[in-house]
Amino acid sequence: MSASAAIETFVNNIDASAAAYLDACVHCGQCAQACLFFEVTGDVKYTPVWKLEPMRRVYKRHKAPLSGIKKAFGLVPDEISEDMLKEWEELLYDSCTLCGRCSIVCPMGIDIAGLVRKSRETMVAARLVTDRLVGAAERGLEIGSPLGITPA
Question: What confidence tens digit (pLDDT) does each residue in 39-55 have?
C-alpha cells in the first residue's frame, strides 16, 4: 500500500471524460441533496463531490492544463498521502452505493458515480481495500458467490 501507487493509478485512470467532469464541477451542492448518506447524516464529508477529492487533487496537481506551471508557483493542491487515502477508504466504499442519484441531478451532467467507481479502482491498486471486500472478492472467485453461498 502506498500513496505513490495510488497517485500513479489516479493519473492513469483520469481520461478525457474524467478530466472534463473534474473541470466542470461548480460545487453547487445539488449532488449532496441527492445523496442518501448526506441526507441522513447532514455531514458534509458525505457529499458526493467530497468523495472525489483525492482524484481532484491528483488531477489538479498532475494532469490539469498548466499544472506544471501552477505547481512551480504553488497553485496546486497538496499531494495526497496515505493518511488521506485511508480516510477516503470509508467514504468511497462504505458511504456510496453507486446508485447514481448524484449524477442524475448534477446540472453540469457530471457522472459522479462513474468517478467514484474510478476512485475505487485506484484504491484497489493502492491496496486500500477493507478486509471484508477482499474476502468477498476471494469468495466470489473461489465459490462463485461473494457471500460464500454454494449451490447446495
Answer: 999 999 999 999 999 99
